[in-house]
Amino acid sequence: MTARSESAAKTKERLLDAALTLFSQQGYAATGIRDILQEAGVTQPTLYHHFADKASLLQALIERHYGESQEQLAGIVASEETISGKLSAFALTSFEYCNRDPRVPRLMFQTYFGPTVPEIDGVLDKLTEKRFRLVVRLMEDAITAGELSPSDPEFLALSFCSMVDQPLNLFSRKARPKRYLTAELAHAIVYLFLGGAK
């Protein structure tokens, strides 16, 4: 890599990092191009050299952080044998991603539950659907194997995802999410899901 291409790569990373910080703090709609330029310390022509517009910055962030993590998550879950192990791996890995960079889940929740961003319509939906379908397949396989009682796998998947995602949403906003998003919490969620509150 030449010095020039290395410098360009670093500038692009600065832009992505600045956008991630701002979008996760104040939301996509409330973040202007000037905010990103100021945060990244670059000029407008520099930004447009790397990205067509603000929406392409958001799309790049979503595909990088959310898309790549979904591929890794599927592999980690597949390495487990039992439904308990698979669900624990799903919850724990989700928590670990958040603990690595809490801005990422904040961005996802801000984008998913904030004002619609027509420019990236469908990108986040496609990725969240992929994650949800992974959990549906886990439920279907567990029902077939007799590990879970016959039930609607989509309802089970929705219930489990809600149990994992609500702590992610709440605790990613804390100063130190690692204090809350622990292996103990991941296992407790799986225990509650599989055993029910009796």
Task: Walk me through this protein's architecture.
By secondary structure, the chain is mainly alpha-helical. It has a domain of 138 residues: Tetracycline Repressor, domain 2, CATH 1.10.357. It is 74% helix and 0% strand. It has 9 helices and no strands. Helix 5 packs antiparallel against helix 9. The protein is elongated, with a radius of gyration of 19 Å. The protein starts with a helix and ends with a helix.
Helix count, per DSSP?
9
Helix content: over 70%
**Main pleated-sheet profile:** none
* Second rung of CATH, namely the architecture of the domain at 58-195: Orthogonal Bundle
Distance from N terminus to C terminus (CA atoms, Å) equals 60 Å
Q: Would you tell me which CATH topology of the domain at 58-195 applies?
A: Tetracycline Repressor, domain 2
Number of strands: 0
CATH class of the domain at 58-195: Mainly Alpha
Computed structural class:
mainly alpha
Mean pLDDT: 91
Tell me, briefly, the overall form. Answer: elongated
- Taken as a percent bin, the fraction of beta residues is under 5%
